[in-house]
User: Which sequence fits this backbone?
């Protein structure tokens, strides 16, 4: 019982922290629909999304994620679910874009504090997200792989399948409550999975397996352990550790930049990936492919940057 009580308390604490992010976005999407702003934005970004093989609504979801974060993108997805039509390949492409580039104002501020360039790493994340997302979406379309349609109505409750706006304000409130309840259930399930991974030692094994990949990409061995923590748990944790370790070990600018490039492109591999896979994304696309692309990009950066090239890395010591 003590474990269940602890699980409930942790789930509740995380849930309310996320509601502070998700609910305002869901309300904003609803208001935008009522005033026609969503449709106008959709028309504005439709050409860009069409170029990478995704519907206009996917652009609105991704833009929300870029500024707000993964849970903000999920909130936008919930708000737009009734009119959204995507294949598994397109949805996996969108989820990959969200994972590559999300919460940039907050996360790139952490990168800057850790010694990297805010704009260089932000541009890297956006560029890789667009290229990889487009490659996945068009690859799926041309090959027929992951061509099955994804249904999103369940996100808004079976009673509200179809257009929830037609049910009025009460229907929207009911659908939103249902969506938040699903979010709480997913959070609780993820916490159980993460706890099992830790108790069985799988987290340590995954960490050990990732360290050689980081070194293969050109990252200095001294930075691999702290980078691995961020890759698994999140940029916030990894960035904080890099700040601490860089002050203790005096990481060179090149090492710090490459570590932060790794973290910018691939972090929170367990939690964020599991969350989007639970919504319907393909694990090979959002996990295996993402890590592979990160490995290639960082390896190319490592070979392009001359050791000690401070100007190229955009590294400047940040005052405490």
Assistant:
């Amino acid at each position: 019982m003590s474990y269940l009580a602890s699980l409930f308390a942790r789930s509740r604490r995380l849930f309310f922290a996320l509601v502070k992010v998700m609910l305002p976005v869901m309300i904003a999407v609803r208001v935008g629909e009522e005033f026609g702003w969503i449709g106008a934005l959709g028309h504005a970004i439709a050409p860009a999304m069409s170029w990478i093989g995704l519907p206009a609504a996917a652009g609105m979801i991704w833009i929300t994620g870029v500024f707000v974060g993964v849970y903000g993108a999920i909130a936008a997805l919930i708000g737009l679910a009734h009119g959204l039509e995507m294949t598994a390949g397109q949805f996996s492409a969108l989820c990959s874009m969200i994972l590559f580039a999300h919460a940039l104002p907050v996360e790139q501020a952490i990168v800057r504090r850790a010694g990297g360039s805010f704009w260089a790493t932000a541009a890297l994340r956006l560029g890789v997200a667009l290229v990889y997302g487009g490659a996945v979406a068009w690859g799926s379309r041309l090959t027929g792989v992951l061509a099955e349609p994804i249904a999103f109505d369940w996100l808004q409750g079976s009673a509200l399948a179809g257009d929830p706006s037609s049910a009025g304000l009460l229907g929207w409130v009911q659908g939103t409550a249902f969506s938040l309840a699903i979010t709480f259930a997913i959070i609780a399930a993820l916490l159980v999975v993460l706890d099992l991974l830790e108790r069985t030692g799988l987290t340590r094994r995954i960490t050990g397996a990732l360290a050689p990949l980081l070194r293969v990409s050109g990252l200095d061995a001294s930075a691999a352990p702290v980078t691995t923590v961020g890759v698994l748990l999140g940029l916030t944790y990894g960035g904080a550790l890099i700040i601490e370790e860089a002050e203790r070990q005096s990481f060179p600018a090149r090492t710090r930049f490459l570590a932060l490039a790794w973290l910018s492109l691939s972090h929170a591999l367990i939690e964020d990936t599991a969350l989007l896979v639970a919504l319907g994304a393909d694990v090979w696309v959002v996990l295996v492919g993402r890590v592979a692309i990160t490995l290639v990009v960082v390896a190319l950066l490592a070979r392009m940057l001359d050791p000690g090239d401070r100007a190229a890395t955009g590294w400047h010591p940040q005052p405490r």
